[in-house]
Amino acid sequence: MMYRSLTRQQVAETLRTTIATQQGTVVTRTSEVTNATNAGTVAQAALTTATSTDTAARARVTSAQTALTTAQKNLTKAVAKKKPKSTAAALTKARNAVTAATRTLTLRKTEAGQTATSLTAAQLNVRTATGTLATAIANRDAAAAAVVVTQQKLAVLPTAYALATQAKAISRDVVTQSRTGFTTADTTQVYGITVNRNVAYAFKRMLDDARANGVTLSGGGFRTRERQIELRKSNGCPDVWTAPSSSCRVPTAVPGRSLHELGMAIDITQNGKTLSRNTTGFKWLSAHAAAYGFINLPSEPWHWSITGS
Ligand SMILES: [Zn+2]
């Protein structure tokens, strides 16, 4: 029975494709984290510069303030002096000093206003960069977690061996059930080969896929009880009904026991010849037939059935 085997392959293939896509997303998200980290470093450096520039500007305001206070005190002293000869020149000089100091203070305050604005902007940039980095890290972690989830799904898929064992057990049940009430109406044709309807789909898929790989297979499937009896005679079995298959010149199952009588065994041919071990057909089937639910009877390289008997 092929269903689970093929389903596993398809599911595994889909999951691997998903993992590849998700890993691509992780790469993208990781580069976004790198970009955000770099942007954060740049913003932090700009904030450091803006902070020291603003500190220096405020120090210059304080200096200008002090200079103005000094100039105003000097003017007050000059006004208080009463010596007429020197008073006029000293007063003019003191007034000019106050005017200059006032102008300098105004200039320094304007400069400090600008550096304060720059500092606020730099602080905002750092906060934005920090937020962007946090989002980028969360996105990258989510992408990495998604990969792990898919990898776990892939890991818990049943192994091909476990599925083959299950399939073999199911196939044995199918054979047992099919022996009761079997008629030729239970058979159908696949490329001229008569097989049981239960295996026709898997068998056709197997031949189609082999041909797609450059291996064209044919063969003989269903045979009647009468034909099996004839074969027992013509293949030199010691008797028709009891002698073991191996005692015949060509191994031939006792009538009623051959899976050919249910259309669930096929004797495969390639290029008109019965399959032997050194053919491309045998090698292809050895590698792939299990996926379609077909197993070889080791003593007969041409004989492939759903239970291997
Ligand atoms: Zn056979």
From TrEMBL:
The superkingdom of the source organism is Bacteria
Coiled coil spans: none
In this chain the D-alanyl-D-alanine carboxypeptidase-like core domain maps to 194-307
Q: Which SUPFAM superfamilies match?
A: Hedgehog/DD-peptidase
Q: Which CDD domains match?
A: Peptidase_M15
State the name under which the record lists this protein.
M15 family metallopeptidase
Which InterPro entries did the record assign?
DD-CPase-like, VanY-like_core_dom, Zn_M74/Hedgehog-like
